[in-house]
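Researcher: Let's run the pair from yesterday's discussion. Sequence first, then tokens, for each.
Model: Starting with the first of the pair.
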Amino acid sequence: MGCWGVNSANNIFFRHNVKPTSCQGSHWEQTDGSLVMIEVGTDGSVYGVNSAGNVYKRDGISSETPTGRVWTQLDFCATFKHVTYDNGSLWLLSPTGDIYQCAETDH
């Protein structure tokens, strides 16, 4: 189990061995990529937005590879400033404040 975060330089980090109720754990590991925000669903799915407003999903996450293997850009015809994910739905917030919902099979 781990915790994800980004810093002010848009670097992505994963914290190993966290407690289920807090992001306290052993150590932070920097992962590849650059995001302005990151979101983790209760099922462990990880999504993020980069500085250009593109949305990415982290693929290859497993107990053997908790940081995953690759960021996959999702194909949307718009840019976004925030994402949140849970219960099979991805919610996206546009720069103008419009909210969109995508079912897991939509992206």
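Model: Moving on to the second of the pair.
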Amino acid sequence: MNEQVLSLRLMKVGEKVPQDARLADIGSDHAYLPTFLMLNKKISYAVAGEVVKGPYESAKRQVAKNLLSEKIMVRLANGLAAIQEEDQIDTITIAGMGGALIRQILESGREKGQLKKTETLILQPNIGERTLREWLVLNGYGIVEEEILEENDKIYEIIVAEPMDSVHYSEKELLFGPVLLQNKTETFIKKWQREVKAKERVLGDLQKAQVVPQEKIKEVEEQLAWIKGVLA
């Protein structure tokens, strides 16, 4: 993967970015995504934010090599602190992290006024999609698009969210994804078949415990029933 050829996962994230967006890519690593999008004339301006010094330096070199230093600002900063008022960011991408960490970045940005709640959020959690959807609902974001894909035997979900006046999802929609539930692709089925096996193992371990955690058993049994119902 480089700035010319993205991984399937990042390519799909990039496809969700609106034409001529002013993009903040948080946790940008080598700045592959904003560089690719700028070279392909998909975005008009970008911030590549990175909290770790090594990837930050790599991103700076990548942007400079492609003569894009005036169009892509590479900043060493924690989360949404990479964004400045004058950037006029309208789209934020956060990809390749756990859902809990993405949630933490968004919440910190909200508390500090770095998240204006006018931006489109394009999020690709590696795990923990449900906790991310819960945060979106709590903070007035509706899920307008979702995609599930497989790459190198790993399954990823992409969530696109926009500010909305009234947002409500059921517990099942938070778990499976309200949009993904409407179109159960082969990859969707594969993911949840794997989850059935994983949860059945967890349930077996819980039932063997010396102190049986009844509440946890009930929770896992309920989720198993939901999954099997969706797969039926």
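Researcher: Give me one sentence on the second I can quote.
Model: The beta strands are 21-26, 43-50, 72-76, 91-97, 120-125, 141-151, 154-163.
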